[in-house]
């Protein structure tokens, strides 16, 4: 239950905090495999500072829960699209990661060596994943704007929810209540 919140939030935070295409590409290979759909936690240096406002109003809980649900839907769509990109280019996520790693660290050469065709596939996938990352980020921006919940406050509430069982329960109740209404 709350794990879903953390998974969705971490994924969302990770995606909108990603600044460089290389970081987005390194997380993208997990997308093609359905069993690997759980996101990685954002880097520790991207964690928000201690929240200044420890009080979370009911309105904020509602906005937070609504934001989580919308971001989760966008993320699921992005994962599906990433999977389609890999499939269309006939390049596995694992092979993509090997090639990416070898570009980041030339001493780590993948086995077998990268063929000219694989290099071209890699470049096409990289370009498409960067476009997908930008599109996903724009969609995330739209959600935050529509919900009138600044990212900084979203991150603060997430941090508070990780520390406060009663807040987690309030959020979970809101998530459950809004899911039953649909």
Automatic annotation (TrEMBL):
Residues 21-52 have a biased composition (Low complexity). Residues 107-171 form the DUF4168 domain. Keywords: Signal. Residues 1-24 form the signal peptide. The keyword Cell membrane does not apply. Residues 98-112 have a biased composition (Polar residues). The keyword Ion transport does not apply. Residues 21-61, 96-121 are annotated as: Disordered. This is DUF4168 domain-containing protein. It comes from the Bacteria. It holds the Pfam family DUF4168.
């Amino acid at each position: 239950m709350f794990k879903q919140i953390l998974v969705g939030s971490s994924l969302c935070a990770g995606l909108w905090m990603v600044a460089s295409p290389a970081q987005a590409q390194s997380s993208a290979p997990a997308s093609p495999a359905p069993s690997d759909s759980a996101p990685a936690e954002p880097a520790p240096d991207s964690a928000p500072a201690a929240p200044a406002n420890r009080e979370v109003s009911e309105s904020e809980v509602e906005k937070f829960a609504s934001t989580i649900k919308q971001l989760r839907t966008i993320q699921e769509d992005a994962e599906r699209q990433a999977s389609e990109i890999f499939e269309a280019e006939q390049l596995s996520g694992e092979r993509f990661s090997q090639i990416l790693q070898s570009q980041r660290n030339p001493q780590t050469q993948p086995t077998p060596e990268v063929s000219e065709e694989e290099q071209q596939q890699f470049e096409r996938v990289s370009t498409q994943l960067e476009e997908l990352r930008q599109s996903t980020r724009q969609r995330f921006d739209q959600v935050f704007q529509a919900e009138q919940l600044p990212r900084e406050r979203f991150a603060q509430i997430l941090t508070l929810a990780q520390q406060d069982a009663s807040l987690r329960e309030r959020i979970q109740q809101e998530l459950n209540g809004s899911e039953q209404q649909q």
